[in-house]
Predict the 3D structure of the following.
Amino acid sequence: MNQSASRAIATYRMVAAQVHPLVAVVKLYDEAIRQLHLAVRAIEARKHEESYICISKSSTILRGLCHNLRFDKGEDISQQLMKAYTYNIVAIHTAYGKPDAPVRYMKIIKHLGELRDSWAIVAGMSPKLEEVPAPRHPQAAIRPARVG
């Protein structure tokens, strides 16, 4: 294992021990959403490899959330979340390379934002990220809003 990977793992362990699990879930949603915004920008800049890396990161986060569901703590909600995560993972990869991919990603971002807000309320955090304006047309530049 190289030095930077070791450092990243050590940092992850330290942060994981310091952050409440619900807060961590909200932060994971925030990062998945951020990666999709970056993918949209990369698509518009015709940086296809960069956009693929971003959607891969976003779907990996969702896959991680899916794999950490606690069916023993609530089977019904876990089933619903698993369906939502799976649907979004498939939608993310299906949209890649399509002419309307930015529009599709914005719909996914909206859905993930709603899930994020639900978890944020449970965690006692701010329920909404600033709204990101809709594109004027499918190829309009979309930048993530900054909170604060």
